[in-house]
Every structure is written in C-alpha cells, then in structure tokens.
Amino acid sequence: MNPLLARLRDREVLVRLNAFILSYFGWIAFGVLYGYIGRWSVDVTREFLKLPLTSRSLVLGLLHYTRSIPPLYATLRGVYYFGFAGSIAFMVLYILLYLRDLKTSDELLARYLMAYAGAGTVYLIFHIHAPHYVYHIPGYSVDNTLLTRQEFVLPSLHNTFAAINIITIWKYRKRLGGKVLIAINTIIPFATVLLGHHWIYDVLTGFLLAWAVSRVTDGWAVRIPRSLYRLELKSLGALTMFNFVLATLMLLIALDPQKWLMVIRSILSQP
Q: Which of 11, 70, 71, 198 is buried deepest, with most CB atoms within 10 A?
C-alpha cells in the first residue's frame, strides 16, 4: 500500500490531523466573534503612524518598486495568498502525513495554538490597521473575511506562522521538502511588507511571538481530546474527510467572499 494512503488509516495521524483542522476552525470562529467582542479593542493606528518606517511614501514606494518587476510581483502575490492557510497545510502534510513525525507534529500544533492565543489576546486589547487600509491603496479589499480582519495586523500571524514553520522544519533542512518549505516561508515576510499588507513592525513582532512560543513549547505534546481516540477508525476517517472538505470550502469562500455570496443568493432565489 502507498505509504501516504496508509497514513490515512493510521489512528495517531488522523487524530492529530483533526486537531490541526479544529484549531483552524477555532481561529475562524474567533475572527467571526471579534466583530462583537473586538469593539472594546483600542485603535492605536494614529499613534502607531508616528513611528519611523510607517510613512505613505515608504509604503507606496516599496509597492511601486515591486510592481515594476512583474516576475517579482507575481511571485510575492502567489506566496502571500499561499502564505497563511497554505503554509499550515503543507507543513502538516509534510511532517504528519509524509514523515509521520508525531513528536514534531505535536510541537507544531502547540506552537500554532499558542500563537493564536497570543495574537488574539493582543487584538482584543489594541489594534492597528494594515498599510493598504490606512493609505487607501486602490485594488485592495477592505472587507473582512473568514480568515482575517483589517485589525489583525500586529503581530502578523502570517509572519508568526512563517517563523514557526522555519524553526520547526529546520531539522529537515537537508531534505528537499524541508528546503522548499523553508524557502517559501522565508519569502512570506518580504511579500507581506512589499505588497503593503503589513508594516515592518508587524513582521518583527510576529517573529518575536514565534520565537517565544517555540521556546516554550520545545518538547511539548498537546493533549488531544480522548473522544477522538474513542471513535472507530472508519468514523474517524469520515470525520477527517468532512472537516477537510469544510476547511477547503471556508478557504475558497474567504478568498473571494463576494463571489460566493452571489452564488448563495442565486441558489436561494431559485424557486
């Protein structure tokens, strides 16, 4: 049997795969709830803009320079939109399904969970807005999605997860898969800044958060709910498939919410 297919019948792998997906759902749920509980968060954007390296001329200058080199611009756009959900998915697939490194998988899940908690706590206390939002750069959506909100900027989870991924996968840096993942995650910080999605300070605080949670979680194992272990293997496989399809659907909706809203409205309007 193909080793990758065999992993999908491995209880330890399936339980952890569901744990990763559920953590992803948890962050999406936080983003939705933030529309209500985030109203008490203090907007410090005006004070933030007094810092160096936040000027309109710098942000637009970097963006115009990037756009002047089409191959660079296309590459950075691809990496950025791959960045958050994509980097998580490929890390999990490589470490858990391909390598079946359960110890590293547990550390990675612990780091993701702590990063979610750390960034979420900051967003609930205070927030700033993204460069493209502050300077009204044409061509950028200002709508909130299932994956992110305009207030989820500092620390940048894009960059937090990129740094966590590099730290976690570094032991496999001599393997082809490790090299590819390290390369992609290394480009993410440049993509977020050069495309005007994040400030330089978002990247730095993201790195700091990644370093902190990685130090704390070294050797940790997440306590996965025993209820997942009690499921029959067939039921666990069905749950995994359901969660995977649901996560994929949420990602597609998040990438183009207006398009999917029109699709839903057209379906509901049919007799």
A: 198
Amino acid at 253: I
- 102-125 and 70-92 helices cross at what angle (nearest 10)? 120
Q: Do 97 and 107 meet the contact criterion of CB atoms below 8 Å apart?
A: no
Both tokens of 8, joined, read 């999908």
pLDDT in tens, 44-73: 999 999 999 999 999 999 999 999 999 999
pLDDT, residue 199, reads 93
At 126 the three-state DSSP class reads: strand
Chain-centroid distance of CA 113 in Å reads 12
What is the Cβ-side half-sphere exposure of residue 2, based on CA atoms within 13 angstroms?
Answer: 5
Question: Is residue 210 within a helix (H) or strand (E), and if so which, with residue range?
Answer: helix 200-216
d(CA 101, CA 104): 6
DSSP 72-102: HHHHHHHHHHHHHHHHHHHHHIIIIIIS--H
- How far, rounded to the nearest angstrom, does the alpha carbon of residue 202 sit from its chain's CA centroid? 14
Q: Which of the four pLDDT bands, split at 50, 70 and 90, describes residue 4? A: low
Residue 65: what are its φ and ψ, rounded to 5°? Answer: -65, -45
How many CB atoms are closer than 10 A to CB 111? 28
**Residue 240's pLDDT band (cuts 50, 70, 90):** low
Q: How far is the C-alpha of 133 from the C-alpha of 144, rounded, in Å?
A: 11
Q: What is the dihedral angle through the alpha carbons of 163, 114, 122, 128, rounded to the nearest 10 degrees?
A: 30
Angle at 203 between CA 256 and CA 155, to 5 degrees: 75
